[in-house]
Amino acid sequence: MTGSNSSRGVSRTGLAAIAVFAAFALLPVAAAAMGDTFIVFFTIRVMVFAIAAVSLSLILGQGAMVSFGHAAYLGLGAYAVGILAEHGIWDVTVSLPVVLLTCGLFAAVTGAISLKTRGVYFIMITLAFGQMAYYTATSLSAYGGDDGLTMWGRTEVFGFAPLGDRTSFYYVVLACLLGVYLLARMIVASRFGRVLKGAKQSEMRLRAVGIDPYPYRLAAYVIAGMMAGLAGALLANAAEFVSPAYMSWHRSGELIVMVVLGGLGSLLGAIVGAASFLVLEELLSHITEHWRLLFGPFLILVVLFGRGGITGLLGKGGRND
Amino acid sequence: MTEPILRLQDVHKAYGALKVTDHVNLDVFPGEIHAVIGPNGAGKTTLIGQISGALAVDGGTITFDGKDVTARPMHLRARSGLSRSFQITEILPEFTARENVALALQAQQGHSFRFIRNVARDRALNEGAERWLGELGLAHRADTPAGILSHGEKRALELAISLATEPKLLLLDEPMAGTGREETDRLVEVLTGLKGRYAMLLVEHDMGAVFALADRISVLVYGRIIATGTPEEIRESAEVREAYLGEEGAA
Description:
The structure holds two protein chains of two kinds.
Chain A: H1 3-34, H2 38-60, H3 71-86, H4 92-114, H5 119-138, E1 149-150, H6 166-189, H7 191-201, H8 203-208, H9 213-239, E2 241-242, H10 249-262, H11 267-287, H12 291-305, H13 309-313
Antiparallel strand pairs in A: 1-2
Chain B: E1 6-15, E2 18-28, E3 33-37, H1 44-52, E4 59-64, E5 67-68, H2 74-79, E6 82-85, H3 97-108, H4 123-135, H5 151-164, E7 169-173, H6 181-194, E8 199-203, H7 207-213, E9 216-221, E10 224-229, H8 231-236, H9 238-250
Parallel strand pairs in B: 3-8, 3-9, 6-7, 7-8
Antiparallel strand pairs in B: 1-2, 1-4, 4-5, 9-10
């Protein structure tokens, strides 16, 4: 919706976004007042997965590319940081470029092949690439193989350790989430984003006006892979541990659930979806270890009654942001 | 004599034993409206598909604007000025009418690897889009999602999108398909207004529209062109009558 509609839409989504980020920003203060440290750790995890969910939302929600191997980028980002650390390289000026390059390259190669296919075939081929990454990680015996890799510290910035302190680590992750979210929003609202959204609706129409959707899809796929890689790097730092489990197809499925739960087509929804998923997992797993039995019906209800996901249920605030 | 903007030479295509395009030769000259008529299943849409690049030819050459485009992919043909409308409406239903046309304008302005500026606030695109919508009587529908426009409005939007690509040749695949009398009359009026500004290859079932608009008509039967001529010549041709017009008249 252009013109008047969009300015109204932007301010509404903008308000919702400000509310969400303000809540994240104030949380450590509230937690300190309550003397609760668990919730800060927990919310770091939420924000890390929110970054991955936003990146998936960019290709899934805007471009209808249902990647079932998105967790591979979480793992690649985590392993890049972990392996560098194993060799004594801790500085972000090395690790961040390595993370982004690794994930960007993996996305470019696998995306170039996967994006030749559509629908179920795309789902299967991204799943296959994800599993390849997973099994490669389990066979890296020099880096822990199945058991994973423990990091004896966290990423540093020019010898300083801003991630060492819990609160500053929290705000670094929050800043990353905010940056990724704003970047994704800008991309969606741009000419590039319009091509992406158009290609989702009719490829034939795009070709007929002179646009080949393929390079745009591939670029979006690479951008999303790099964003998820950043989430992986943060995840490795949060856990001080890297494991092949980060790349398992369950994890890829959970990322899809987060995006769908929050509302397809809404970037803010992906953040809300990631938070809801992890909070529900936490609460329900206290009730029973078979928490998915309870979570499943909940997801079905959200999908049935709120086609816009949670953000759709909350007053249609988050569509197309 | 002027060069044709579009020239098909010996274009053929078969699906197995079925010859859907049987050694077709056809010219469209600048400013001309060349209609292709024929019974259902004659291969008209398949022919449009091959000209636009959506379908590959088995053999023959397609020359557009002096260049051999036979092997050129669809989006590059579109960008060089070969614009196609669809028999079954092919619009972007979630986009507004304005956004549909703006995307066509955007495609004319080079690549879209532009990530920073908000496209919804791009005044040049929006105003350009509104101009085309106005030309086709859709100005009041600019903010309406294309998916909920009426059928006739969708047909008009389809034409607006085509025109916004600054075509040298319009390939119109049954632009009147499924429209009511009143909408058909309006589309004929619009196309009459565009006549001379664009060369058009018009595939249409509505004989009233065809004979009102076309400078020349080719008759396609079983993938083969059996006659090409002025509307008068086609009307009087015994072969055409037998193959097509008579049939239609009797029906």
